[in-house]
Amino acid sequence: GVQRSWSGWQQLGYDAGGVNADPRFADLAGRDLGLAAGSPAIDRGIALPGITTDFDGTAPEIGAVAAP
Question: CA-CA distance, 23 to 46, in Å (whole number)?
């Protein structure tokens, strides 16, 4: 039942790599949830065991990523 701010949540050690910002989808109205250039979610994801890069060979994104 305790409410916390985004920064308060992160100070507790939760979601330290998260981003609280507009992800800037490529075309939300057209249902293209790929990330537009300049999105704050680009290269901000975390690597998982056996998956260290995204489809394009860069660091993982946060959220939806369009497959090639």
Answer: 16
Q: CA–CA separation, 61 vs 34, rounded Å?
A: 10
**Span 18-43, pLDDT tens digits:** 888 999 988 989 988 888 999 998 88
pLDDT the model gives residue 22:
93
The two most distant CA atoms of the chain are separated, in Å, by 43
pTM, rounded to two decimals: 0.66
Q: In 3D, which of 25, 14, 8, 7 has the Cα closest to residue 63? A: 25
- Please report the pLDDT score of residue 2 as a whole number: 85
